[in-house]
Amino acid sequence: MGIALIWSIITVLVRWIFYKRRGAISYDSSDQTALYIRMLGACVIFKQLFSRDVRVRSQVGFEPERRGSHPYLGVDFRTLHSRAESAGSIPARRIRRLFSFQRHMLSSRLLRGAPHLNTLHILDEDYCGQAKCMLEKVGTWNFDIFLFDRLTNGNSLVFLTFHLLNQYGLIELFQLDMVKVRRFLVLVQEDYHNQNPYHNAVHAADVTQAMHCYLREPKLAQSLTSFDILLGLLAAATHDLDHPGVNQPFLIKTNHYLAALYRNTSVLENHHWRSAVGLLRETDLFSHLPTEDSLGIERQLGSLILATDISRQNEYLSRFRTHLDENSLCLGHSSHRHFSLQMALKCADICNPCRPWELSKQWSEKVTEEFFHQGDIEKKHKLEISPLCDSEANTIASVQIGFMTYVVEPLFAEWARFSDTRLSQTMLGHLGLNKASWSAMEPEASGSSEEGESEPTRATEEPSSRASSQGSQES
Is the pTM of this model over 0.85? Predict the structure, then answer.
């Protein structure tokens, strides 16, 4: 009887591990090898069994084992934006995802020509209806990713990325196993923290959709190889993987272990890249390719993701501007094509101000909510409040005006020089209208017309520091 009980407990624990899986990447500088670290093990299990729930401890802000001197270091970033859930209940969102995944597995079998035993007509009707109609227009700039996420039951990143990989013929061309592709995308989506108001799987899906729009631009469409397109889509889908919802300066000033691991340099971007590599290896997505090719994919994927570091914005922008001034960007060279992909991903990452107002406004509110939440945490723990994170000193309008003026406009002006198309003009048009809309709101936020005249000025003071701070969080 005792052995049966122990075996039952072991079985439950194993199932729980796979159900609650999380992962991260560490980097061994001695041999330059990405090491996959499972963040669930016996110690975590026993913490769950014999300690108070990790959510409660993380929300308080303390862990028994601290990595540094500051008490905030032990916080589980996944719970920063979480709300209390009833004990013992499975979130309805997760149940819907399971149904959606089951539906995707059915579609994978159908694409392979395999017979199916259960037709699941009711489940298929949802996907093949409104969501499928939206995917037919996935290349339009006014694509509503929020609506698409609702229609796919919170699986927008999985649905959209799989659709694009299939539409470009990449699954067949690279002989990818569709089950592995599906599993990889599901794990990617689950490793985004959807408690984050902004840096979540919907943002990743939005960036991937924007990247698709840029890949279809004539200058790129005529030059990029299938390998370039595969890299671009994977980088867009994973560019913010496992984002904690706080920026790099916050991790540095709290002596977080990630900051020490990456020596305070592109901390988040390095972590996103290594996390993506971990999932590629865990799912064996490219295991059928020669080792040199799979390592090349990982290396170039990192080069694209690291380009989203806003602290290197001027470096990339200056190089891009020089190429355009000298007309020296030759997309026949692989290095120049890769650089154009880097610039495309940078544009896709911060393209929210260039979307139609109805979409742009929602993103602005979400990113500012995340900023202000970080500021509240810093106030609570008596840390220096990061620029743009103080809700008492900033408004959504002032934050957006500064960001558009000093980060977005210079980048998209050069992109329009590179790709002078209808899409580029549309984006610049939306950018101008959205900036005017926020400027019109700023006097209302200040409470009087005289004070309102000074608000935009305050928003544009110290442009380099303010813009860099916002960009480091939004990218």
Answer: no
